[in-house]
Amino acid sequence: MVALLARQLAAEGLPADALGPLDREPAIVAKTADRQVLGCMNDIAMVCQHAAADAGGLARLDVTALYYRLQRNITSARD
After folding, report:
1. In this structure, are 21 and 40 located in the same domain?
2. 48 lies in which domain range?
3. Which of 31, 26, 30, 65 is nearest to 48 (CA)?
4. Which pLDDT score, from 0 to 100, does residue 49 have?
5. Do residue 3 and residue 25 come from a single domain?
6. Same domain for 49 and 73?
7. Which of 13-18's residues contact partners 24+ apart within 8 Å by CB, and which partners?
8. Cys-Cys with 60: which of 34, 49, 55, 64 at CB 3.0–4.6 Å?
9. In this structure, what is the dihedral angle of CA atoms 10, 16, 17, 21, given to the nearest 10 degrees?
10. Rounded distance between C-alpha atoms, residue 61 and residue 53, angstroms
11. pLDDT tens string for the chain (79 positions)?
12. SS3 of 8, please?
């Protein structure tokens, strides 16, 4: 995970320590009770579905381009 984060920071032109020291501890995934966050997650899911449909299916989807698009998708709850 640390290597993946470092690669993504580099892809954005940022140094590996831009967010401070990267923690090697496992991430914890949990449900959210915040409706704004849930709305953002649903918006992201819809963008992914449309991107896959526009590409002609998941096999033809350019995942790098989708990731880039998602990183620039503005939603209110994420500021």
Report:
1. no
2. 31-79
3. 65
4. 94
5. yes
6. yes
7. none
8. 55
9. 140
10. 9
11. 778 888 888 888 999 888 888 777 777 888 888 888 888 888 889 999 999 999 999 899 998 888 888 888 776 555 5
12. helix
22 and 35 in a single domain? The answer is no
Which residue's structure tokens are 């140094």? 15
Does one domain contain both 21 and 42?
Answer: no
Amino acid (1-letter code) at residue 16: A
Q: Are residues 78 and 43 in the same domain?
A: yes
The count of structural domains within the chain is: 2
Give the amino acid at 41.
M
Co-location of 36 and 2 in the same domain: no
The tokens 């995942």 sit on which residue?
63
Q: Is 30 helix (H, G, I), strand (E, B) or coil?
A: coil
- Say if CB 61 and CB 52 are below 8 A apart: yes
